[in-house]
Amino acid sequence: MRKFLLILLLLPTISKAQVTTSTWGVEDTVINIVKTTNYGVVHDYIEMFNYSGQDLQMRWIPAISTSWPSQWIPNFSDPDSSYTNPHLEDSADFTLLNPPEFSNKLIIGVDHQSFAANSVISFKVFPVDFPEDSIWIHYYIYIGEPEEAQVGESIHTELTFFYRAFDQQLIFSGLKEDVAELSIIDLSGKVVLAKNITSQDGSYILDVKSLKKGVFILQINSKEGLRSSFKFVKTE
Questions:
Q1: Over 13-36, what HEC string results?
Q2: CB of 51 closer than 8 Å to CB of 24
Q3: What is the pTM (predicted TM-score) of this model?
Q4: Are 131 and 166 within 8 A, CB to CB?
Q5: Are strands 104-111 and 42-50 parallel, antiparallel or unpaired?
Q6: Which residues are CB-contacts of 195 (< 8 A; sequence separation ≥ 6)?
Q7: What is the distance between the alpha carbons of residues 12 and 196, in angstroms, rounded to a whole number?
Q8: C-alpha pair distances (Å), 162 with each of 83, 153, 223
Q9: How many helices and strands, by DSSP H and E, does the chain display?
Q10: In angstroms, rounded to a whole number, what is the distance separating the alpha carbons of residues 37 and 116?
């Protein structure tokens, strides 16, 4: 964990908005992939934009975290965009089309082989003729063990969440739009944090810096009164 946190601290400043240079840009520089081991190969992508007025020959160089599990196999594929897969710690080139027949995308996939862990893989991406227009792209990948509801009927069969220690946030994926309240309860039964939440795309980030280290119960109530509960361990 300490090595993982060190890698995160050494990464370039991370933005959560569209980032552009004089020749190209990306919709975001951070992608969070949050799944459990009952999912197969997990993947996500960012959209890329070409502002140069011509096709750009691009180069991407991966930088893998020392926390990357040997069981995880990264893969790169896009049926609509044509680019060469980079080998880890090596570079490869691809073309950023202008205008594209399909949207330009950069996809990362990971075959986790049912091994739960968290890590990060980053890419330095830049036009070969304009290396000063480089952008770092970071894929934070959280693969957890499957959780089952401990109280009442499960209303979120696709819900996954992960505690991101370096900034003390819970990251949710697969929330239903009818979620009414999220509560965190300590082992004495006291509600230490409660928040009304809604989600348009099934994702949500909850700051838990105010909580001390320990074991908690994460409880989610729907508007219909159904409840799902999960165990959560805050380590920082």
A1: CCCCCCEECCCEEECCCEEEEEEE
A2: yes
A3: 0.57
A4: no
A5: antiparallel
A6: 181, 182, 183, 206
A7: 33
A8: 32, 21, 24
A9: 1, 17
A10: 6
For tokens 């980032």, name the residue.
19
The answer to whether residues 64 and 106 touch, using CB atoms and an 8 Å cutoff, is: no
* Residue 172 structure tokens: 């949710």
Residue 144 to residues 32, 33, 168, 203, Cα–Cα distance (Å): 13, 11, 17, 16
Cβ atoms of 74 and 109 within 8 Å: the answer is yes
Nearest to 138 by CA among 23, 33, 5, 25: 33
- pLDDT in tens for each of the 236 residues of the chain? 333 333 333 333 333 468 999 999 998 888 878 777 877 788 888 889 999 999 999 888 888 888 888 899 887 655 445 455 555 555 567 888 888 777 788 878 888 988 888 788 888 999 999 999 999 998 888 787 765 433 333 445 566 777 777 788 888 777 766 666 888 887 666 788 888 877 767 778 888 888 888 778 787 777 666 667 777 777 66
Within 13 Å of residue 53, how many CA atoms lie on the same side as its CB?
1
User: How, if at all, do strands 135-144 and 30-36 pair?
Assistant: parallel
State the number of CA atoms in the 13 A half-sphere of 172 facing the CB: 27
Residues in the chain: 236
Residue given tokens 């990464």 in the structure block: 11
Q: Tokens representing 72?
A: 């995880």
